Amino acid sequence: MSPALATIVKLLSIIALMLTNGVFMIYLLRKVLGHLHIRLGPMHVGPHGLLQTMNDVIKLLTKEDLTPRIADKALFYLAPMIVFVPSFMAYLALPFSDTLKATSLETGLLFTFAALSVVPIGILLAGWSSGNKWGLLGGMRSAAMQIAYEVPLLLSVLPIVMISGTADLGGIVDAQAGTWLAVVPRWFITNPLLWPTFIIFVISSLIEANQTPFDMSEGESELVGGFGTDYSAMKFGLVYLSEFSNTFVISALGVTLFFGGWLVPWLPMSWYDAVPVLAPTVFILKTYLGIVLMWWIRGTYPRVRIDQLMDLGWKRLIPAALVMIVLTGVVDKLIVPLFTGAVS
Amino acid sequence: MSDARDDIITVGLLSEGTHDPGTPPAGIRRAPTGVDGLATEHLIVNMGPQHPSTHGVLRMLVELDGEEILNAEVTLGYLHRGIEKLAEHRRFDALGTLMDRGDYVSGIMGETAVALAVERLMEIEVPRRARWIRVMMAEINRIATHLLWYGTMGLDTGAMGPFLYAMRDRESLLDILEAVSGARMMFNYVRPGGVVADLPAGIDTKIREFCDAFDTYVEEHDAILSGNEIFQARLKGIGVIDAEKALAFGLTGPNLRASGVDFDLRKKRPYDAYDEMEFDVPLGSTGDAMDRFSVRMEEMRQSSRIIRQCIEGMPEGEHTAKVPKVLKPPAGEVYTSVESARGEVGIHLVTDGGTSPYRMHYHGPSLYALQALEDLMPGHLIADGVVMIGSTDIMLGEVDR
Q: What is the rounded CA–CA span in Å between residue B71 and residue B68?
């Protein structure tokens, strides 16, 4: 297969994954929230409402695509693309297994974050260009929030890069192979040094994924629909899809960074070669587990106020993340070598 | 207000193209100038009538500086149905149907207010059983109302779950109300002289079952919201109404009691059988949104206590006094009030000896709470404004009539 063809196949399969993922996640979200809220969720279209999302996609595709008269037309059309394309790009570096990944980037971690951090620009554009005051407020919130959480999010993964010695997502997974004392898997979550880092990561990633305690850019009880108030039909669909896709990417990142990616504890490496579907299945299952946990929080928690979020981001998360970087550096590079005798 | 400068653009609620920018209307702040001397504008937003958190069809013109509310102006009347005027063409036993549609989630209390007015005019002695049934139904209705408030309070702060759990409990209350009165919301159950029908057989087991379950559920409800740190941070210190201010605005009900004023009509001017009931009146101390939250949560517990007493001690006897088919109170004037879930619901009835009132005035507590909101909002963020609306528990059906 020629390299160009291979790339096209890879990109197409990512789009396919993203779309099926989106459709399934919307169904799953409704079911998870439904059962959390002592109701059933969709039940009528297909068995247990399985086809409900398909139905909704068709509805979105065939609905009238409204553009407000005072909207800035070019930007209004461009914004959903700016939201959608980066969340598609963010899949590129995700390692579904040792071999199954679109690209193997030395800077995979940075690339993924870079892609995701374009999304709020699209959201700001969407809110601003639609000529709706609530939309503008939502977009502005999103832009203001971005600085408050992207910095701690990025800083919070630096200790992991320091310990694993690579920013390649595949390499980070490899660094988590094996066990401590033949019992505890060497996943980074089992390293007490990284627990504070993990908490910072979880909080920042909830903001990144626009989930409930931090969903102010949408904030339906305050800003009607936030940045998306004036979007309808498939333009709305794209924004919505990219939100779900971001949730998946964020959860996948969490799995990769802290929960050993596609690794199963205590399983010899030869198994992954023998059963090629094992690693991707494990990876996706872990990711979905993370997503359901995020939705659990979403179904329970009230929303933080915007200034409280700024406080949290600037005054707590960023200093905490910086402290953790220094601490990890000192412990991992100075103190641990003293005991193990290994000089890295 | 005359410090007009050329480099400042004035905007305000009333200023959009209608007046000379040099003379801003009283109470409107000037737009600030930015760092480069560029004028920045305040944003004027219509909050409602289609806004999800205005609890019905309230419209507020809000002047914003970023997210901060500088001015709020409430516009009423989107749900006006002319209840007071309609009352002038209704028979006295049909006034309750109008009251159901006033505060449409606590109909029993409104019906009671109007029934008490007619009874006082006609000097009807209501049988003891009827009075007890009224108290029980009113308290069941009070819990149902407070549960709806509790759920929407959660929604206002962004928590979806509590609403649906509250609806589960409210559903069993509505079932009880339906079994007794035949309707889930528009009861038309309390009539001058008593209630329209006796309690159905077996309802006491149903109510007892509810009370048993609810005593655990209410703790769950309380824990999931007020036990949440985010929720506390959103409510504490928001929308503080001190006792003096609360009295000045004429607040009643939980909103007044949250400010620490001990005024509950059920205790101070007992009607029906409230003088025979044992219950506590919860009071707040600071008068912020969190106090209003806790007062209402405690009121639900107390209501459950009253319902139990009613079930245990329900007297035997008639469910209604003997009243003529066509009620014709003598010419006169009367004011009666009851403690509804939102505060004092008063009925001022003027009669001329005919078969329908000459004039009926409906005093609803939400209108007064709404006025307080206008005063509270400036200086807070939009998100706080939503919490304030939620915590004062306004009911637009009652405000607009």
A: 9
Confidence bin at B302 (pLDDT 50/70/90): very high
Number of domains present in the structure of chain B: 1
CA distance B48 to B157: 17
Q: Hey, what are B258's tokens? A: 């949250």
Structure-block tokens of residue B308: 């139990």
Length of chain A measured in residues: 344
Q: How many CB atoms lie within 10 A of CB B34?
A: 9
Q: Give the pair of three-digit tokens for residue B73.
A: 């102006």
**Quick one: which H or E segment has residue A192?**
none
Q: Is B340 helix (H, G, I), strand (E, B) or coil?
A: strand
B37 in a structural domain? no
pLDDT at res. B9 = 43
Q: Is the CB of residue A327 less than 8 Å from the CB of residue A158? A: no
Q: What's at B275, amino acid-wise?
A: D
Establish if B19 belongs to a structural domain.
no
A292-301, B39-48, B168-177, B379-388: lowest mean pLDDT where? B39-48
Separation between Cα atoms, residue B51 and residue B47, nearest integer Å: 6
Q: Give the 3-state secondary structure of residue B190.
A: strand
Candidates A58, A59, A216; CA nearest to A148 is A216
Query: Are A219 and B228 in contact (CB < 8 Å)?
Result: no
User: Which one of A37, A133, A305, A312 makes the best mutation probe of the B interface by having the most chain B beta carbons within 10 Å?
Assistant: A305
DSSP states along A74-106 = HHHHHHHHHHHHHHHHTTTT--SSSS--S---T
Domain membership of residue B76 (yes or no) is no
Residue B8: Cβ within 10 Å count = 16
Answer positive or negative: Cα dihedral of B340, B346, B352, B356.
Answer: negative
Among candidate residues B215, B257, B280, the one with its CA nearest the CA of residue B393: B257
Q: In what order do the strands lie in the sheet with B332-340?
A: B332-340, B343-351, B359-363
> Please, are residues A12 and B139 in contact by the beta-carbon 8 Å criterion?
no
Report the CATH number that the domain containing residue B252 is assigned in CATH. Answer: 1.10.645.10
Q: What is the mean pLDDT of chain A?
A: 84
Average pLDDT over residues B34-46: 71
- Residue B93 in any domain: the answer is yes
Token code pair at residue B14: 């009333």
Q: Which residue's entry shows tokens 């919860």?
A: B282
Q: Going along A167-219, which residue ranges are E strands?
A: 179-180, 184-185
Please state the φ and ψ torsions of residue B188, each to the nearest 5 degrees.
Answer: 50, 45
The whole-angstrom separation of Cα A337 and Cα A342 is: 5
Q: What's the token pair of residue B101?
A: 């549609």
Half-sphere exposure at residue A99, Cβ-oriented, CA atoms within 13 angstroms: 6
CA atoms of A179 and A195, how far apart (whole Å): 18
Question: Residue B293 — very low, low, confident or very high, per pLDDT cuts 50/70/90?
Answer: very high
Domain that holds residue B174: 83-400
What is the Rg, in whole angstroms, of the alpha carbon atoms belonging to chain A?
Answer: 21
Which pTM value belongs to this model? 0.85
**Strands annotated E in A138-235:** 179-180, 184-185
Q: Which of A243, A256, A250 is nearest to A291 (CA)?
A: A250
Chain A residues contacting B, CB < 8 Å? 33, 36-39, 133-134, 136-137, 140-141, 212-213, 215-216, 219-224, 298-308
Q: Name the residue among A37, A133, A216 with its Cβ closest to that of B161.
A: A37
Q: Is there a contact between B165 and A215 if contact means CB atoms under 8 Å apart?
A: no
